[in-house]
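Dear U.,

Please find below the material for section 3 of the report. The protein was modelled together with pyridoxal-5'-phosphate; I have listed the sequence and SMILES used, followed by the predicted complex structure.
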Amino acid sequence: MRYISTRSNGGEWFSASDAILKGLAPDGGLFIPEGIPQLPESFTLTKGAWYAMYQAIKPYFEGDELENDLEKICHSAFSFPVPFHTAGGKDTLELYFGPTAAFKDFGARFLAFSMERLLEKRNENLTILVATSGDTGGAVASAFHNRKHLSVKVLFPEGRVAQRQRMQLTGWDGNVSSYEVEGSFDDCQRMVKEAFMDSSLSGLSSANSINLGRLLPQMAYYVYASSVYKLRYGEEAVFVIPSGNVGNSTGAYWAKAMGAPIKRIVLATNANRTIPDYIETGNYEPRPSVKTLANAMDVGAPSNMERLFAAFPDIESFRANVEAYSVSDDEIMATIREVHDESGYVICPHTACGERVRRDHVSEEHSVVVSTAHPAKFNDIVEPLVGHEIAIPENLYEIMHKTPQSKRIAADYHNLFQ
Ligand SMILES: *Cc1c(COP(=O)(O)O)cnc(C)c1O
């Protein structure tokens, strides 16, 4: 299996392992497989979620140096359940049973275990730099904690992350260090960029959501979940996906292209309307983000769009395959309340975008809303709406009770290397 850049016209190929270690293609594009493989005939659900995901990922590593390590990597990375919740006859796919209670755990963990194995083989070391305003940093820190040959530096802006998010960024020791930067999130991002450009520093890498190693697990859980759904109901489901940088939904498109039983894919965005507007007008106009209650989706220039454009290059094919609807903050709040009143089920603000879109735009009987995070992570928004406390789930509990440690630094990247 060979990989190309979304910006190349062919000619330069990369292995899956190279794509994972590089993150971004040399020409600045994103790595995509030369052709999407088909799901193996032998695909089976009988050996559990992690094994189904392994089978879905395997063809992407055909001939790769990690091919024979893949089963073990998947077993280690996908060590938590991927259940459906059924309420009022409708299903929600809960992707939040990983250590930081959001779907990003799948990708971050697969990336960490893959990188560890590759570096072990090559006897090299890497330092991962992550600038975060919340969720991503926690998932990456947790996934890379105690992975050999790897260390992580997490940068976050002082006073601007929620208390529970802060715990997830600072509760680490050993190979993970966190830095509370005297500045904004933009300062954190700038420091990371400057560090990458400093030629006296080597062995730096990133763990962005555009990394192939984060995308493949997101493809794999759609293969698994859609197959479970089809087996259970005998029908293909419409998948509704809360989206920001569209990494999660790109995984769903790849799964569908492989032959996974997905009827269609509908994106739910918050008030950041770049994609719904593109579908409506035919003009793609990335823009600054606006702040919403579903803050992990506050994206005005979705970083994985190049992959969707590679799959659906013109507006006609894009419209034929991608549906997207925007949900306002008022609708998010009303939907969290509505769902709780109906069945007692509590959903996070991101998942609420998906549920609103299902209720307003999906007429099919068979549909699945993808739940991207546990509502306890957004307790300050959700608890007043449902009128009671939300218990911290067991998986998140562990991180919440570590001893926070971080270094406070001025917004200059040299401070990261002292
Ligand atoms: C990252 C994130 C999203 C958005 O996913 P994308 O892959 O960026 O589209 C949605 N919900 C939650 C909780 C997230 O952390």
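For the text of the report, you could mention the following: Residues 102, 104, 135, 209, 242-249, 296-297, 350, 372-373 surround pyridoxal-5'-phosphate (CB under 6 Å).

Regards,
Y.
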